[in-house]
Amino acid sequence: MNLEEDPIEILRSSKYALIYIGVDWGREDVKEALENCIDGMEDALQATIGYWKWKK
Fold it and tell me: Can you tell me the distance from the alpha carbon of 27 to that of 2, in angstroms, rounded to the nearest whole number?
């Protein structure tokens, strides 16, 4: 993740895809992962979406 990128904007850009694939935003482990993910957040979210597409 570029230091100039805002984590909130990254989440907004991936939000609908993550909801569609079933990410449960209310789970504590999901919240912790998002709070602790500083570097590579965008790559991690894209990888999650890509993995889901691959499994389909």
Answer: 27
Q: Provide the CA 33 distance to its chain's centre, in angstroms.
A: 9
Q: Distance between CA 12 and CA 9 in Å, rounded?
A: 5
Residue stretches of the chain with pLDDT short of 50: 1-2
Arithmetic mean of pLDDT over the chain: 86
pTM confidence score: 0.70
Rounded Cα gap, residues 21 and 12, in angstroms: 15
Task: Scan for tokens 């449960």, then name that residue.
Answer: 24
Contact 2, 33 (CB under 8 A): no
Token pair in block for residue 52: 């889901």
